[in-house]
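Module 6 notes. Inverse folding takes a fixed backbone as the condition and produces residue identities as the prediction. Think of it as a translation problem where the source language is geometry and the target language is the twenty amino acids. Below is one complete input and output pair. Work through it position by position during the lab.
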């Protein structure tokens, strides 16, 4: 095989590979970031995983695990629960997903509220 044929075959293979990649259906998970609101995606999170909370610890509150969106992996990933030091006069509001009016899912991180 001569050099020109090899280059032509390589170019055609790369063009086909690129066309196949570009023609692949776009995932519904198109992240939308809004200032102060968080991430909005078109894919609902899976059901929460069951986690057995460890026995209570004085001065700490259990923050349950939640699904987080990974832009790098283009999927939800589980973040395990953890102990958080209690803030006197506050209660912990766990992380949650809510579906917006246009169908996108929005994530709200856990926080301490009065």
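Target side of the pair, the amino acids:
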């Amino acid at each position: 095989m001569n050099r020109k044929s090899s280059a032509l075959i390589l170019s055609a293979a790369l063009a086909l590979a690129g066309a196949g990649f570009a023609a692949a259906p776009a995932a519904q998970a198109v992240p939308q970031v809004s200032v102060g609101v968080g991430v909005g995606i078109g894919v609902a999170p899976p059901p929460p995983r069951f986690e057995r909370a460890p026995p209570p610890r004085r001065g700490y509150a259990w923050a349950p695990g939640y699904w987080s969106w990974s832009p790098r992996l283009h999927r939800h990933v589980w973040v395990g629960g953890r102990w958080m030091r209690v803030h006197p006069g506050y209660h912990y509001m766990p992380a949650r997903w809510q579906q917006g009016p246009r169908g996108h899912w929005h994530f709200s991180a856990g926080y301490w509220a009065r």
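Reference fact for the lab report: The longest strand covers residues 66-70.
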